[in-house]
Design brief:
homodimer; 519 residues; alpha/beta; Urease, subunit C, domain 1; 15 helices; 18 strands; globular; disordered C terminus
């Protein structure tokens, strides 16, 4: 990796309710992927930005004269990479397949059989490989993954993330509660579950000792899947290295009743609950699993007392609107969570959610917040800026990297995407693909200038007419954008997806084409 | 136009709760676009379908030996064209731009200024041209369009639909209520509104006298926009030729209160209403506007008495889930409407809805039905088959063409789309594009057979692994499909969109490139 310069328009969300547009801006990224400087082009450089970068900026940094420069075309912009705070890589082949099920029958009918089948490593490679490539193509630079119970398949997921260059928390699923795990797919004992978890942690320590991309995450599937013994072991394991934890909470009303029933004789009643029973959050807290490193998926039906407890512990919530609507779990009250001081990010929750896209999760977070508002809480509505904040900065905090990810700031990592909306500028430049050198842009613009409306030639679902403000363009991207608008994706400064390259710039795993489909 | 043969897999929804898969099937389409026969390939023809079609079927029809044959590749299928029962072509540039507004402020802030600006015909051509191309690319073969108040711009929309080959109901918007229409955009008098409406009807009669593609539709914007005089005139105009009518009903609670207030001294109290006031449906009925030819958009908050009235009058409802969620109108109870015997189709309602896609409307109809179910009505959930029925057969009934559109049946019109999901078959055939002749398919398959997983090479958001059932594939298409999966689109047997052709097979209007952008 070499040092790099990025130039042009940058858009990010410094706070929940604000979006910042940095135009004519230069971002210098060091070889290790860290942003060194973010600065506005001085007036003296505006006539010929490339010349200024080469003759003034690069020498002042002490970088080589041939440092590569990537510039946005007119209408394009850099945006922070999306962070998927809750995604089951192992369920990826089932996206869209959920019928009319709800959580507990969905698990047994669709989910457990598929997850179990991934102990076939050839199948796991195919599923995980495609999941990583698909989410990268949608701009997901960091994912908090659930794999399966299987150790080799989970390790394979880690290897494939490393190979593809996607930042990931990789979790081996723990589930030893025989009553609620199928006999064909579970940990037989708490001891085995802990040992298998440690094996996956050791693997990640071996393949990525500096944690440049990978971190292990302790993954009790959800309370009903785990014995008290196992939950206690995972709580103690967390303390050993302050490891991240991910699990589900309060997704579905039947699930909540089940948790109370399972733990009522094990966990004391939780403070502030009306029913004299332990709360769902109280169960996790009892076992030391509510920590600042904990990602709680869903949190649809949390009580006030649970929200207070979660806030006090500093745990985070992954909001998964696509899943919550699709499998009829409920409408999570994101504004309510935020107002209580809880940090929130977005998750696709494939395959409870059907979409691999965090942009779609943001879109659906907007819609679901309006369904909450229809219940009478008009303030519940989330704005364009707010859902984009959740998709980036919010997610960064949820995965414990709020100081390194989500913004274009010195010291942050260059995990970013180049977005193009097919904007036609005054010169007829449709802005397909970034240019490596601004000088190229001038040529492209003059070639295209004979035609002032070329959108038919670019394949995008976002239709920009040219008169829109930047705010309008961002709204159009949020509501009609898809992977076609994500032109390039970088993680740690490395280009990991490029729509303009053959095969999208992705080298398929060498063994994949030789493998047979294993149904 | 010549006679044509289509061969392969056909999928449609003969009833609300059923989907039918017709494989190895031949559909013969006459030059005028009508389906002559739908028949299963006999066993004797299966070894070499093309030969059987050419040597047995074509001669038996008395058709020319060189009759063109279009066949699905493995995994592809023909599906009826989508019917958009409620779409404001004039609002297309505003998709995604709605902030936190609700209906009445949204109209004043975003909608009226844009609609008014389309009296600039160069701008109208650009907006309408792109709207038609975009919706065709998403498989919309029929659209019930709202244009604007302006006659020449409305006539231009009709002309452009005819040119592009999209079937359309084209409505000039009537709005003469000065109190609720801006002074810069309205009909000054009821007489002018009626005359302008007649002018647009005359234009359609001139350019498409046989109504092969176009029909005029009487379009009182919604009750608050119209005087009683105008509503009465439109009711009488309907009777002259049994013309279709489209309007809005019961979208938003403030709107309903406004209607009652505006018409309480004009329209008698409606039967069955608790408040002793006219109901929204009662207002339309009073003026003769509730007819079997009437399309009522939204119907979110209808009362039991209104539903009975609508059912008795045979009027239809256009369900617009994207819009209803986006501008916080409410969650329409589709099951409740269907159970009351009301026919329902889907509408994008751009730009209250942000998406040009009826597939997305179907997807969101599924989600919204689950939000209704979360309120306690578990039976409210709509299945995959049900929302696809609404998108096709349901829509056909709503636009008054249930006997000609929505199914692959003799006597129906060939308004259809070819869907490809990037399925990899046993020979490694990824199924990009249909083949005009099955002989070509064999060659393509053998070329591709070296690679059993080519999905990286095809640009699709639907990821099919190969082991899915047809039911699963349809669900995957519904939930992750987009315009990339709509390979070709036909209306009246004419190919009107082709993704594999340069410029998607669409010839841009000759004058477009020469026009300046008028913001």
């Amino acid at each position: 990796m070499a040092n790099q310069i990025f130039f042009g328009s940058f858009v990010h969300t410094p706070a929940l309710d604000s979006i910042e547009y940095l135009h004519d801006t230069v971002v210098a990224v060091e070889a290790k992927g860290t942003i060194l400087t973010v600065e506005s082009l001085p007036p003296i450089g505006r006539h010929n930005p490339l010349a200024w970068i080469r003759t003034t900026l690069v020498p002042s940094l002490g970088w080589e004269a041939n440092t590569p420069v990537t510039a946005t075309r007119p209408g394009q912009f850099f945006f922070p990479g999306f962070i998927d705070t809750h995604i089951h890589a192992s369920q990826y082949p089932n996206v869209g397949i959920f019928g009319k099920s709800t959580l507990l029958d969905w698990l047994n009918k669709y989910t457990f059989p598929l997850e179990a089948s991934l102990r076939d490593l050839a199948k796991a490679r195919r599923v995980y490989g495609r999941c990583i490539r698909k989410t990268l193509s949608h701009g997901t630079t960091t994912a908090a993954y659930y794999a399966t119970v299987d150790v080799p398949a989970t390790n394979l997921l880690a290897d494939l993330c490393l190979q593809a260059g996607q930042r990931a928390l990789v979790g081996r699923v723990c589930m030893d509660q025989h009553a609620f795990s199928p006999d064909y797919y579970r940990d037989e004992t708490p001891e085995e579950a802990e040992a298998a978890t440690r094996a996956c942690m050791d693997h990640i320590a071996r393949v990525d000792p500096e944690h440049t991309l990978l971190r292990p995450v302790l993954t009790p599937r959800f309370a009903p899947s785990c014995t008290a013994d196992l939950l206690g072991r995972l709580g103690r394991l967390h303390k050993e290295g302050n490891w991240p934890i991910q699990t589900h909470i309060s997704e579905n009303r039947n699930e909540i009743a089940l948790v109370k029933d399972l733990f009522k004789d094990i966990v004391p009643p939780s403070k502030g609950e009306d029913d004299g029973m332990p709360s769902y959050a109280g169960v996790y807290d009892h076992f030391g699993l509510l920590t600042p490193q904990t990602i709680l998926a869903h949190g649809v039906h949390l009580t006030e007392a649970e929200a207070s407890l979660i806030r006090d512990r500093g745990s985070k919530v992954s909001h998964c609107p696509c899943s919550n609507s699709a499998i009829t779990s409920g409408a999570a009250r994101v504004r309510w969570l935020l107002d209580r001081g809880i940090e929130v990010g977005l998750g696709t929750d494939m395959s409870g959610g059907y979409s691999p896209s965090i942009l779609e999760a943001a879109r659906l977070a907007s819609l679901v917040s309006r369904h909450v508002a229809m219940g009478g809480e008009d303030a519940a509505k989330l704005s364009v800026e707010e859902v984009l904040f959740l998709a980036t900065v919010g997610g960064a905090h949820v995965v414990g990297m709020g100081d390194r990810l989500g913004l274009f700031r010195p010291g942050m990592l260059w995990d970013a995407q180049l977005i193009g909306l097919g904007v036609v500028d005054a010169n007829g430049n449709t802005g397909t693909g970034a240019v490596e050198d601004p000088a190229v842009a001038a040529t492209a613009a003059s070639v295209a200038s004979a035609d002032t409306d070329q959108t038919l030639n670019e394949d995008t679902n976002v239709d920009v007419f040219g008169w829109e403000t930047w705010e309008d363009r961002i709204a159009k991207w949020l509501f009609n954008g898809d992977d076609r608008n994500t032109k390039k994706v970088w993680v740690n400064g490395r280009l990991v997806h490029d729509r303009s390259a053959p095969n999208f710039g992705v080298t398929p795993p060498a063994t994949e084409t030789a493998e047979k489909i294993s149904p």
